[in-house]
Amino acid sequence: MENSPFDVIIIGAGVMGSSTAYHAAKRGLNTLLLEQFDFLHQRGSSHGESRTIRVTYSQPHYYSLVIESYKLWQQAQTQIGYQIYFPAHHIDIGPSDGPIMRSLVNYCHNLGIPFQLLRPHDIAEKFSGSIHIPDDWVGLSNPYGGVIKPTKAVAMFQTLAYKNGAVLKDNAEVTDIKKTKEGVVVVTASGEKFRGKKCVVTAGPWVSKLVKTVSGIELPIQPVETHVSYWRIKEGHEGKFAIGSGFPTLASFGEAFVYATPTLEFPGLIKVSVHHGSACDPDNRPWGPGVMMRELKEWVEEKFMGMVDSREPVVKQSCMYSMTPDEDFVIDFLGGEFGKDVVVGGGFSGHGFKMAPVIGKILTELAVDGEAKGVDINPFRIGRFKITSKI
Ligand SMILES: Cc1cc2nc3c(=O)[nH]c(=O)nc-3n(C[C@H](O)[C@H](O)[C@H](O)COP(=O)(O)OP(=O)(O)OC[C@H]3O[C@@H](n4cnc5c(N)ncnc54)[C@H](O)[C@@H]3O)c2cc1C
After folding, report:
1. Which atom of ligand 1 sits closest to the CA of residue 188?
2. Reported pTM
3. Ligand 1 atom index nearest CA of 349
4. Which of 18, 129, 160, 205 has the smallest set of CB atoms within 10 Å of its CB?
5. Which residues make Cβ contacts (< 8 Å) with residue 386, sequence separation at least 6?
6. What's an example of a GO molecular-function annotation for this chain (predicted)?
């Protein structure tokens, strides 16, 4: 066992744990980041080539988190010296009389976000004929969109954490966290023990399993397997869909929640996927076929008017969400015998990546200062669920 305890031990090196390690190390804290697999593996939630950042949400509590994250993404990429964030406009589309579009318009009004409400012909005109919506749909366009490079972002946080003195250890599966007088002891599958004053659990789709093992508390966070799909743009139309051409990041609220990002990672391909998946055991994945493929093919054909080949996606990648019943995050102290010594960051429900920089900061502050100043974490408290505990 280590002689002097770490100030903070972080369990799980996806984007949330890696961002937390970066913030903790930057504050001069003696920081340890533990990961069960290889760093930058592809078996969790944070790998891949693109994530959307957007400010439009139905729940106002995400607004300040996203705005702060834009600033922190810029800061971190300046420190590392390469580009993580690629700017784009964002557009939400959906039925004009639907509750989601109405709530997004109210949200923009109330928060003073500049936006344009666009009819189908305005959209065709604004985006060079690349996007077509039905006559009874509208689009809500605003300047706060963009693409984040996920694997590159995780590597960036790990590198910056390391440069600031953090200890990073992969292939170290945590099997237990024990309460001690001074804080916690974290135990790995190989029998190593690490003492920490505080601990942050950012175990992604494994978070409920780990929390249950160490505390008996059952968090209602469901791992879900999902897929991203890339589609081939037909010859001659590639330029219309490229990042920097004016093509936006896009969220579509029809029968399915479909999202798209401009061409960036694979020339000639566009990512169009559906926010949906199947419940899974993260240790026994189905690695199943894509989800809602029929709906997705129809969406690609209709919204891109035959300019994108809708027969089959040409690249598919598998990934996991960690879903809470209300799709709000879990950011809180574990409580029970651990009190404020263990903080949990999980349940990011398929929309957390964009906010990783601010979430890492909040988790660090909760662990080390006992509070996150200026942030209301009430929407993210464990207490909002009916939970069971052996404690
Ligand atoms: C297909 C897809 C598309 C998405 N699109 C967007 C988007 O456009 N915009 C957006 O904002 N968000 C998006 N998200 C959501 C976002 O990617 C996730 O919210 C985020 O990556 C969650 O990160 P995490 O660190 O909590 O989890 P993970 O990345 O899964 O990290 C958890 C880590 O903990 C490790 N671990 C688990 N148990 C242990 C243990 N016992 N010991 C040691 N290590 C352990 C795991 O191996 C893993 O590396 C998307 C997610 C997916 C899957």
Report:
1. 42
2. 0.97
3. 19
4. 129
5. none
6. flavin adenine dinucleotide binding
232 and 202, same structural domain?
no
CATH at 305? 3.30.9.10
Residues pairing with 179 in the sheet:
184
CATH number of the domain encompassing residue 163: 3.50.50.60
Domain co-membership, 298 together with 210: no
- The alpha helices in the chain, defined as continuous H runs, are 15-26, 63-80, 99-111, 120-126, 150-163, 207-215, 293-303, 356-369
Which tokens in the block code for residue 52?
């959307």
Q: Mark which of 303, 323, 343 sits at the end of a domain.
A: 323
Give the C-alpha separation, 274 to 293, whole Å.
9
Kindly list the protein residues whose Cβ atom lies closer than 6 A to any atom of ligand 1. 11-17, 34-37, 44-46, 51-52, 173-174, 202-206, 210, 226, 228, 319-321, 348, 350-354
DSSP 175-196: EEEEE-SSSEEEEETTS-EEEE
Domain that holds residue 167: 6-47+150-217+326-384
Are 363 and 261 within one domain?
A: no
For residue 199, the cross-strand partners are 9, 342
